[in-house]
Amino acid sequence: MSDSVIYSVVVPVYNEEQVVLESYKRLKKVMDSVNEPYEIIFVNDGSRDKTAFIVNEICEKDKNIKFLDFSRNFGHQIAITAGMDYTEGEAIIVIDADLQDPPEVIPKMIEKWKEGYEVVYGKRIERKGDTFFKKFTAAAFYRLLRRMTDVDIPVDTGDFRLIDRKVCVALSNVGERSRYIRGLISWLGFKQIGVEFSRDKRFAGETKYPLKKMIKFAFDAITSFSYKPLKIATYAGTIISFIGFVYLLVIIFQALFIKNTQQGWPSLMAITIVFNGIVLMILGIIGEYIGRIYDEAKGRPLYIIRQTKNIEKDKKGLRG
Ligand code: UDP
Ligand code: MG
Fold first, then answer.
1. What is the pTM of this model?
2. How many angstroms is it from 233 CA to the middle of ligand 1?
């Protein structure tokens, strides 16, 4: 048997000092049982705790483990992208570090891949240990996204999935930086299938997705796959100005023919506030798109690597 890597596991880590060692152990156990050469790439997304130190130590002992260390926090989706860029395997598996995605599902994914599927995504049938708020917002988000986009993005599916090397290469050719990876993978096409699993509780620590990151993530997803919010702005603007115009006619009519016109400052005030609110909201929506266009236009690299471990010195990723 040649010892070229067949499976590459990509694990983004951000402040996961409590989790990363356990995560490595569980992954190693599963990957050893598969009995084909593999690599596990940890991508440290600018952790401020001991995560990098722990991964370094793991790398010293186990040469199957590779390490990409970002110069700062670039975000979950970018960390996954970088990991993918440096993989060598024929099949690439993306998994969260916190063991919410059980590594034991990987062999099932591999089975599907061997049957010829090019994308095998994990479909959550249950979410243990997530708060009501998280479950509710997640369910609402996936359904809203589905209604808004033309791309068929499966609901309740995270980044936990296996993709074929072909898909990985295609994905690295997508230069976008507001990356919503699950959406992009759906957009790419290929033969896709889901494997159901129940999402566990976080092994330790707390979520690295505070509300602010969740909102950015949702905006990235929607803006990269839909113009509908801009259309809503147009429709709302049109309808409201029509109503305003009708109201104006009524006022003129009253002034000309009825004579006893009211001292109308309360209504005036109300209308001013409503309209200003709507104008600001619409400008905000447009701003979200322009900001992203600006980001793309600058063409900066997606991420900056401080150091690597167990990766050949001059090895360039798919991107570069
Ligand atoms: N993560 C990351 N960068 C970030 C936030 C999260 O690399 O800026 C990693 C994190 O370490 C974990 C995965 O992304 O491996 C998913 O994050 P988390 O479990 O906190 O999200 P949740 O499951 O709560 O949605
Ligand atoms: Mg998690």
1. 0.79
2. 33
